[in-house]
From TrEMBL:
Cofactor: FAD
Protein's UniProt name: FAD-binding protein
The keyword ATP-binding is annotated on this UniProt entry: no
Sequence similarity: Belongs to the oxygen-dependent FAD-linked oxidoreductase family.
Keyword presence, Oxidoreductase: yes
Length: 454
């Protein structure tokens, strides 16, 4: 291992942290605190050449290689060489072309802030702190999704270091197979060091959330579901349901309370947004109403997700539609008083532009899904098995209706069949062939592994 560290130190412009060195723990940490990476060495890359050096060294020493970007979804610890891209966070906007060049470690917050002065916005996610590149590699369903579709459909180019340490400029014209695979196939084919994306002419939205007292609105999930029927594509919405634990760190008004939060992002006037949302207010007592005309730079307030890193696990299913019985089961999971872990149920309304085939085909699957259902639990030591059982039980009523799953919302180690379910059968077979072509020795340890074709 000393030879590996020496080789990296000699070539890498950024920092190299062997296990146990000062700064090692900080360098290997991410937003997900459960089962942290335990690499032999961390490469804090500052440029594509640093990534190439790390890939070459890992291959030469037959060490696995993983990437710690700024995504949320790490599911299993990795050993060997860990490449941290958080120092590669530059964003360059071309307002005339309506594009942005985004380095591997940039968060959506960085892109939103760079685009905003030009009246433009990226197809960013609900949490501004999530990494733009890993989010896009998994497809990317964000606040403007029903109007503009998947984020991956708006990529123009990737810069990619493949497992043989070659640097590719991957576009539809130059590398059509890789370009297809990277848009939805995740980190199975190389290390993305940057991407060029389209920006959209959005500077403001009507958005925020309505927080309901679910104890006095028992049919809220069903009411929200009925409300989504026939909405214009300019309206993207979701609902989250949970029982807050009775803990002193929480506001007293929320401790032990059953709540449901409806999130709204509408691309239209405040007046029209208010008219569309009005039926929701009749569903039950509203504890908090943050809906307003807001600049897109404040879009993180729509979901108002936790900013601090924490430990959690989640599972996801994609369905064409939801029936009242399934929604009642999900409400039971979220509001159970006897559950061993907190279970947060999140449902996102899909359809609209997400359901249309892109101009350039991509690997992302199940465009015909109408809703995404995720169950998530913040965890403490020793709670993983309890969470696994709680999630299985919560999603069981959806099994017959499920089309598959979204890998971006699956924060749990998935087996091969579960990963396969994220794609159309022919697309999955094509992905396994491409994995065998570009990473025949399985150097990469991606978050959700696509196996080599047999």
């Amino acid at each position: 291992m000393t030879d590996l560290v020496q080789q990296l130190t000699a070539r890498v412009r950024g920092r190299v942290y062997p296990s146990g060195a000062d700064g090692y723990d900080e360098a290997r940490a991410g937003f997900q605190l459960l089962d942290p990476h335990r690499p032999s060495v961390v490469v804090a890359a500052t440029c594509a050449e640093d990534v190439r050096a790390a890939v070459e060294a890992a291959a030469a020493h037959r060490c696995p290689l993983a990437v710690q970007a700024r995504g949320h979804g790490r599911t299993a610890p990795a050993e060997g060489v860990l490449v941290s891209t958080r120092r590669m966070s530059a964003v360059r906007v071309d307002p005339q072309a309506r594009t942005a060049w985004v380095e591997a470690g940039a968060a959506w917050r960085d892109v939103v802030e760079a685009a905003a002065p030009h009246g433009l916005a990226p197809l960013s996610g609900s949490f501004p702190g999530v990494g733009a590149v890993p989010y896009t590699l998994g497809g990317g369903v964000g606040l403007l999704a029903r109007r503009y579709g998947f984020a991956c459909d708006h990529v123009r180019r990737f810069d990619l270091v493949t497992p043989d340490a070659r640097l590719y400029q991957v576009a539809a014209e130059s590398e059509p197979d890789l370009f297809w695979a990277l848009r939805g196939g995740g980190g199975n084919f190389g290390v993305v060091t940057g991407m060029e994306i389209d920006l959209v002419p959005v500077s403001r939205i009507y958005g925020g959330h309505l927080l309901f007292d679910a104890a006095q609105a028992p049919d809220l999930l069903d009411g929200w579901h009925r409300w989504t029927a026939g909405l214009p594509e300019e309206m993207t919405s979701a609902v989250t349901a949970l029982t807050y634990p009775d803990l002193p760190v929480l506001p007293e008004a929320l401790r032990g309370r059953r709540v449901a939060q409806v999130q709204i992002a509408y691309l239209g006037s405040e007046q029209e947004g208010r008219r569309l949302v009005e039926p929701l207010r009749a569903l039950g007592p509203v504890l908090r109403d943050t809906l307003r005309d807001l600049p897109y730079t404040e879009s993180g307030t729509v979901f108002a997700e936790p900013e601090e890193p924490h430990a959690y696990r989640s599972r996801n299913l994609l369905v064409r539609d939801l029936d009242p019985q399934a929604l009642a089961g999900l409400a039971d999971a979220a509001f159970s008083s006897s559950a061993p872990v907190v279970t947060v149920v999140g449902i996102r309304h899909l359809g609209g532009a997400l359901a249309r085939p892109p101009r350039i085909p991509a690997a992302v699957g199940h465009r015909d899904a109408g809703y995404s259902v995720t169950v998530l639990s913040p965890l403490e030591d020793g709670q993983q098995e309890a969470a696994r059982e709680a999630h299985r039980a919560a999603l069981a009523p959806l099994a017959d209706a499920a089309l598959g799953r979204s890998l971006n919302f699956s924060y749990w180690p998935l087996d091969e069949d579960e990963v396969r379910s994220a794609f159309a059968p022919a697309d999955y077979a094509r992905l396994t062939r491409l994995r065998a072509r570009y990473d025949p020795h399985e150097l990469l340890r991606p978050n959700h592994r696509i196996p080599l074709a047999g």
